[in-house]
């Protein structure tokens, strides 16, 4: 584990800041929406996670990403995800901050206490919608900047730390020049990463990273959305510093669960989830979530509940 002064482990936000300052590092963030998908990503070696707002809304509320999730929904999920691996950076969607500057302050302070390493705030109205849907409405630039300023002030007053990412959805309705202007004023107000939602071409993306240099820029990979499906290699070549993949887990879970349900209902058994002719048993599934480590902890503490499982 990385350490400060040879003995104190780095916090998640310190790790994220080191990643952002390292010219050779590109930050790849698989999108997760619950503890299980987070555990799977971590088991496969993910160095940074992204809590998707769409996935949080869909998994916790069973509803689409239409601004229905409130701060409490998002905070509860972010707190749980951050606690799974406290030294792994988690970047979390914070939507609009959920209200006035005072509400933004509460949101940011709460995310800091939860151990979230970075969050993004956007310039849609509070009743927002997914950035890859039509009909988005924006607040004026002054209100957007007040959200960023409130986030910076809340961070200072909290005594903690978090990376503040400014997101604008102005490109679709207002054009590139307006979107660029909004990001520049957000950066001037203290935002540390720029997030232009809904880029439509590689040329547009290259212009963004060039126009905002040296501020790191974030790419939102949403297959089937309005943006190109840039690979990590392509995003890095374009000049991005971070790429988030918010629908990664949602996209693969949908057909897998759908097919399994269809098999069960039509044929009375499920074959599509077999691994080398075998089903995934509870022990292997639970181990993704740390079963062996928890049993070992219990044994070392003197517990007797898992002695026979050694």
TrEMBL record:
Point out the coiled-coil segments of this chain.
none
**Cited InterPro entries:** ICL/PEPM, Isocitrate_lyase_ph_CS, Pyrv/PenolPyrv_kinase-like_dom, Pyrv_kinase-like_dom_sf
Task: List the transmembrane segments.
Answer: none
Q: Which GO terms describe its molecular function?
A: methylisocitrate lyase activity
Per its UniProt record, what CDD domains does this chain match?
ICL_PEPM
Q: Which Pfam families does the entry link to?
A: PEP_mutase
Q: Which reaction does it catalyse?
A: (2S,3R)-3-hydroxybutane-1,2,3-tricarboxylate = pyruvate + succinate
Q: What is this protein called?
A: Carboxyvinyl-carboxyphosphonate phosphorylmutase
